[in-house]
Amino acid sequence: MGKNKLHIAIVGNPNSGKTSLFNCLTGLNQKVGNFPGVTVDKKTGMTSLSGDLNAEVIDLPGTYSLYPRRPDEWVSYKVLLQQDKDISADVILVVADASNLKRNLLFCTQTIDLKVPVVIALTMMDIAGKKGITVDTSELQQQLGVPVIPVNPRKNKGIVQLKKAISSAAENVYHSPTRDFIDTIDLAKGPVEDIKKIIPGLSNYKSIHYLINHESFDLGDKMQETIENIEQKYQFNHTRTQGEEIVQRYARIKQVMQSSVSEPDSFQKKLFTEKIDDVLLDRKWGYLILLVILFLLFQSIFWLAQYPMDWIDYGFAHLSQWLSQSLPGGWASDLLINGIIAGLGGIVVFVPQIMILFGLITLLEDTGYMARISFLTDRLMRSVGLNGKSVMPMISGFACAIPAIMSARSIENKKERLLTILITPLMSCSARLPVYTILIGLVIPSHYYLGFLSLQGLVMMGLYLMGLVMALIVSYIGKWLIRVKEKSFFILELPAYRSPRWNNILPTMVSKARIFVTDAGKIIMIISLVLWAMSSFGPGNNMEKITQQYEQLKKQPGADSEKLDKELHTAKLESSYAGILGKNIEPVIKPLGYDWKIGIALITSFAAREVFVGTMATLYSVGDEDQSSLLLKEKMKAAVNPDGTPVFNLASGLSLMIFYVFAMQCMSTLAVVKRETRSWKWPLIQLAYMTGIAYVISLLAYQLLK
């Protein structure tokens, strides 16, 4: 073998038990990163095989065949075709679902024909037994020519035998079958023979893949040109060759199934899964149950995340207070407290929601219900250019757009994934709640209809519905504007219902939180520091003059130092670069009913929407933590324009609420969109269209109501 460490690649169909087996082999010895060039999670881990032989295991994305369509399928494909510079596997561990063996054998036999060391792990034997399916593993092993080991990762069964088989495969105890599973050379005899002459060592089947996908391989210009010439010489037809291969494979798979698998009569009594589906996928009850489950999911994110988020806020507030009391005054202390610590707090406070959301989504995926949600909503989503898999990111966006956008990776079609990412921030996230709450309390009367329907509650619900409706409208328009030729096929397997893998939920939650903090967090910190600098410094020596002026006022007899300190803070903010920017944008936002102070709040709340309330508190001299939000509302209610009219009335209040419904106002989301799309193009488009919609509709609302 010549290596101190073995490298194992786990591949297989989606929902075949691949991740369960990976978790069983590696335990807690896992790392999560990203494959180079694509936003696909890269899970690696270490396992001990036999004696002192250790192996690095990599969990490759699931794929149904060796003809990739999605970015994650290309990752697996390039590893199997030995075209990945970073990953070189000594053994390919193919996971096959015994309860859906016919479908799984397509990918298994394609991998075997690549003539690489292969071991097949046969999972779901218990489910196959419940279906009345019996698999003769000895006969199946003889037919395929590679080791076939039944395993149950959930109960740790068959793992010892599997590790022995992997070690033997690596030491060439098992040899690749001399004959192909099908006569692949007959599919394209002339071009295959020519390819094997210029690239010695290729199997017949691997040669066909070089003919079909060589443009995506790193072969050099001369080799690419040579392969193109071979294609032209024989008029090689990709589609026909692929079609003939699939037909031949399934014909041969049918023979294998007849000799090694015993299946029950098709009139067998319905399985438990099918009985549940009769209710959960019913046209009436199915949608009602879906709404209840989504409501509970949505509420749980608020209920469960509220306490840890409060603890984080409390912890960072006390840390800031302690630092401000312990450190000497000056710009360095201010940078640490109001720049770095505040920025870090703005990142970490999202972590509970991200962890809880992905934990609950993992729970739904493990039980098998997530696929049913996509199935039920596909018709509505498809009418606006999306598909059924878009609904979970959109619903998740009501809690926080950041994990919601990250969860859009499950959408295979590039256009539908991009549309989902672009519209998800229109869902009213929890960060908008503080803004909605204070503005509704300011301008909407506390009136009840029929004794129990609160007008304020109805307005709040209307704001949420407004974002959802606009998201569907934008998606409908976007499907005509985004030019992606990739066809959309909503092919969905409904997995059997299973008990969740509780030991898998926590690692998933931790890995998603780590990705957010390390990747998006970098950009958030940079923008937080820029906003701090804009709010702390101003041109020339204006800030020093203001400080000196207020210091003199404090020395006067009977001066209220506490009040003067608050006025000083407000005056310095007004003279800072952020304040000047607020003054400069006032002519632009004046038609919406906003003054320069609201302009500053719009700028500072770009770091996080909930900062709006804190900025208002500072601007209206209500900065003490022990003062209630009621006092803040009274101060805001008392604020007047130069002409004596109130700053916050029904027209300006609704205008501001509508602005926050539609405007991006979240640098964290932009950072995550940039990470997911690997380009600044789409976050900038997103920022532009959302700001445009927010401005126009807020303008209409104010002008009609004033």
How many angstroms separate the termini? 80 Å
What is the alpha-carbon Rg in Å? 31 Å
Molecular shape? elongated
Multimerization status: single chain
Q: Count of helices?
A: 30
Taken together, the total number of domains comes to 4
> How much β-strand is present in the residues?
5-15%
Mean pLDDT: 80
Helicity, as a percent range: 55-70%
The residue ranges in which pLDDT falls below 50 over 5 or more consecutive positions are 621-630
Could you walk me through the main structural features you see in this protein, from its secondary elements to its overall organization?
The protein is an alpha/beta fold and 706 residues long. It has 30 helices and 11 strands. It has a 7-stranded mixed β-sheet, with helices on both faces. A two-stranded antiparallel sheet has the order 7-9. Helix 3 links the parallel strand 5 and strand 6. The protein is elongated, with a radius of gyration of 31 Å.
